Amino acid sequence: MQKKGCMIACLLALLLCLFPRTANAVEAYTVENLDITIQVQEDGKLLVFEEYDLNFNYYRSSFTRNITSTYHIPVTTTQGVVYRDYYFPVRDIQGDRLLSVERNEDGSIVTMGEEGMQLTGRQKFSISYTVQTSDLQMPDQSQMLYWTLVTNLDTRVNHLHYEIEMPKAFDPQEVYTNTGKYGDVKNTLSMQVNGNVISGDLLQPLENNEMATIKVNLPNSYFTFPQPVDVNFTASLGSLILLVIVGLIFWRFGRDQEVFVDVQDEVPKDISSSEIGYIMNRFASDSDLLSLFIDWGNRGFLLIHDHGESFELEKLREMNDLNAKSYERELFDSIFQNGSIVNQDELREARVAFSLERSKHLLERSFNKKNGRQVYTDSSIFLQSLMALITLLPSLLFVWSMTYARFELWELSLRNLIPSLLLGFDLAGWVYLVRHRFTLEAKQFFARMSVLIIVACILLAINSVTLYLYGIAMWALVIYLFVTIVLFFCMLYMDKRTRKGNEWKAEILGIREFIETVEPEQLKERFQENPKLFTELLPFAYVLGLADIWAKKFERLSVEQPEWYDGMQEYDHFDTFLFWHTFHYCFYYMERNTLYRPPIKEVGFFHFSLRSILPKRKK
User: Fold this and answer.
1) Which residue of 34, 89, 160, 411 has the fewest C-beta atoms within 10 A of its own C-beta?
2) Contact 213, 146 (CB under 8 A)
3) Are residues 445 and 364 in the same domain?
4) Which domain holds residue 115?
């Protein structure tokens, strides 16, 4: 029995060693004395000075003071006492041993000490700052001074002395003090009034995380608070002014002149079918350049042999500076680089796709101011890029002003600007998509457009929710969305053409109008005047996507087979609609072999292959 008793006693002693009593835990430091002096200004500003006398029980690197900016203040209403949240910004923080100041939505975290030194024993710190209070919007129009003298101290405060100097007379009977943890009602803080000065001391120490607050009920108009800037009005006014300025710039520099379309039944003299894409959409596509096969046939440069399951291209004459443009020669010479006759396998192996890209660049560069062929004005090119940035300004203005007016924190405002900055990438995607809208397939265009619309709606919704949480008025929110959307459309259409560009655009639209609307009798009359009308306008119809319609209109006319096309020997007579479908089948394989790009299997540099560093596949 005695042995069992000894074993139990030893186990109890061991447990006590493992779990020491928290009552004997030594705090890092204690506040031996705290002196607080507050000068209250007539505009509600508080000039606060705090002096701490601390006793460090063991080494610490610093002393941290958390200054609260968000207050949960009791307000008496008809429904009783309710608590409302108010934000009083803290500014001008200074201290004799200041290390750092961090700010957030709840307040400021002030760290004091000595750089590279440990604190121990008795240490003194002083800190001063200003607090701008505001009208509490009391139901009876009265005012109040509410201030927390001690808060967020996880240690014992042995003594506290405070002095509050009011700007003018008040009722001493309306001064109340309170101590204890949140929700406690204690009266351990003395209070006396001497003129306009309120002072007092602790009657007993404050324990960990206990607070000491003071409240002074004041008559109406005691403070003359500075009138806050109406952010809703200023942000809305700034956005509307920006919209007016952009509208004037768009009317002067971005709005395309009205084009008067005359029906054109002749091939334009200055432009070819391959240049339609750039004139209309600023970008040349593959189909634009491939229409040159038909144009070259009309001009006697090549002959197309259609064998049904295969084809051959035969060069009839050379190209030079006088009879062809630079981008034509680049593509033509690439096709016939190995001989005057090229079959589909040789065309595939010639890797013409790389020359096709160079041809498109040469085509776009051929429209410049020096040779009088500039299509788009310099101002519109610059302004469309600038408009992508201007469209972001309402989002940046509203979000920044609403968030900064609430907390006066640059860090918080910048964090809330992230969706607006992401909206800039979405706008850049819109500019790219609109400029390539005629070079993309319909499915690709609508798929990308859907993604951009969804992303833009999500980002605008995030901004709208952020503004709503920070108290934006509904009419200001409507103005924000309206201005942003209008600026967005101004950005898309800020693409003004030169006078020459508008003339070419009118000619192209006139050709399209003629192909789509020409009546059989009118076409017959025009065909009798120009028997080559079908083949001359065929490359333009192909680029405009109207080749089927154009071929259909000549079904009842006796059209001769093009001299540049060798095929359809099995048919008794030449039919344009049948020809186009037969030739289009051959043209499909010409296009596929022209655009063929061989897959890059490996890249070697000085006998070093990238394949050697790739992981081996298991069999």
Assistant:
1) 411
2) yes
3) no
4) 24-218
| 180 alpha carbon, distance to own chain's centre | 49
Answer yes or no: is 265 within a domain: no
Any domain includes 36: yes
Query: Please, which residues have CB within 8 angstroms of residue 583's CB and are 6 or more apart in sequence?
Result: 304, 306, 565, 567
Question: CA 48 to CA 25: how far, in whole Å?
Answer: 33
pLDDT of res. 534: 92
pLDDT winner (highest mean) among 16-20, 26-30, 104-108, 289-293: 289-293
Which residue, chain included where needed, has tokens 């958390």?
66
Q: Are residues 76 and 178 in the same domain?
A: yes
Identify the three-state secondary structure at position 302: strand
Q: Which amino acid is at 155?
A: T
Strand partners, 608: 605
More confidently predicted of 245 and 445:
245
If one counts every other C-beta atom within 10 angstroms of the C-beta of residue 339, the result is 10
pLDDT the model gives residue 293? 92
pLDDT tens by residue, 20-60: 444 445 678 899 999 999 999 999 999 999 999 999 988 88
> Do 78 and 150 sit in the same domain of this protein?
yes
DSSP 18-64: HS--GGGPPPSEEEEEEEEEEEE-TTSEEEEEEEEEEEEEEEES-EE
The last residue of one of the domains, among 477, 492, 507, is 492
Q: What is the mean pLDDT of residues 161-186?
A: 88
* Segment 205-225, tens digit of pLDDT: 998 888 899 999 898 889 998
Asked, for residue 16, whether it belongs to a domain, the answer is: no
- What is the rounded CA–CA span in Å between residue 121 and residue 483? 62
Confidence class for position 255, pLDDT limits 50, 70, 90? low
User: What's the rounded Cα separation, in Å, for the pair 587 and 581?
Assistant: 9
Residue whose C-alpha is closest to residue 392's, from 311, 286, 480: 480
Per-residue confidence band for 614, with pLDDT thresholds at 50, 70 and 90: very low
617: left (phi over 0), alpha (psi -120 to 50) or beta: beta
Number of domains in the chain: 3
Whether the CB-CB separation of 329 and 308 falls below 8 Å is answered with no
The mean pLDDT value for 191-213 works out to 91
What is the chain's percent helix, strand, coil content, to nearest 5?
45, 25, 35
Q: Are residues 183 and 97 in the same domain?
A: yes
Report the alpha-carbon distance of residue 592 to residue 163 in Å, rounded.
Answer: 89
pLDDT (tens digit, 9 = 90+) per residue, 105-123? 778 889 999 888 888 899 9
Chain centroid, CA 122 distance in Å: 54
Please provide the distance, in angstroms rounded to a whole number, between the alpha carbons at the two ends of the chain. Answer: 74
Domain CATH code at residue 182: 2.60.40
Quick one: tokens of 224?
């003359």
